[in-house]
Amino acid sequence: MAGRYDFKLDAGSTFPLQFQWKVNGGFVPLMDYTARMQIRERDANGCVVSDLSTENGGIEIEPYTGTVRILIPAQDTEHIKCPLCVYDVELINGDTVTRILEGRIKVSPNVTKGC
Q: Exposure of 88 by Cβ count < 10 A (0-12 exposed, 13-18 middle, 19+ buried)?
């Protein structure tokens, strides 16, 4: 079962998120893993507002410590207009996909915008 983490995101700001995948108190080595994450408006059927992965550079994996680093760039967050979004993070190893984290994101709107 995926862990749950709800957070607040300031639209228009770069948002970092880092966590370790742990099982029974010990981290899981992530050799040969890739990762992906989507943020969607309102619910699982909403429009995708951010699509991050190890392939596109939005997610980095430190295999020896089980650490996953996610960086949502400001150019992605500035386009989020919905006040409540959902997300999940999946780790992929070969044909095995494990959803390890999920939650809701409360979005604080961006007032100052570049021209």
A: middle
Buried b (16+ CB within 10 A) or exposed e, 61-86: beeeebebebebeeebbbebebeebb
Q: What is the value of pTM for the model shown?
A: 0.89
Report which of 35, 38, 59, 58 is spatially closest to residue 48, judged by C-alpha positions. Answer: 38
Amino acid at the residue 60: E
First to last CA, the chain: 44
Tell me the per-residue pLDDT of 24-69, one tens digit each, with 9 for 90 and over.
888 899 999 999 999 999 889 889 999 999 999 999 999 999 999 9
Q: What is the pLDDT of residue 22?
A: 87
Neighbour-count burial of 50, counting CB atoms closer than 10 A to its CB (0-12 exposed, 13-18 middle, 19+ buried): buried
